[in-house]
């Protein structure tokens, strides 16, 4: 789990402090999870999952909107 949390945080380009602030813990807590010294409690894991589901959904909606706009532009060029 520690490597997955670290990978996720880095993919989001967040410091341990900023990642922790987003999920309601301190940066040193995130550091302990990433080092394997402690495991995140189920409540924190559930929060991370809910937060990431929202993030992924937001990214997917943005991608769909962008594709739709591209389609509309190409359709206008045909007319």
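^ structure tokens above, recovered residues below v
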């Amino acid at each position: 789990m520690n490597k997955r949390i670290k990978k996720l945080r880095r993919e989001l380009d967040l410091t341990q402090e900023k990642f922790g602030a987003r999920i309601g813990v301190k940066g040193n807590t995130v550091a302990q999870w990433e080092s394997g010294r402690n495991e995140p409690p189920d409540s924190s894991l559930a929060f991370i999952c809910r937060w990431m589901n929202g993030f992924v959904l937001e990214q997917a909606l943005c991608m769909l909107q962008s594709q739709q706009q591209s389609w509309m532009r190409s359709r206008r060029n045909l007319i």
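The longest helix spans residues 42-78.
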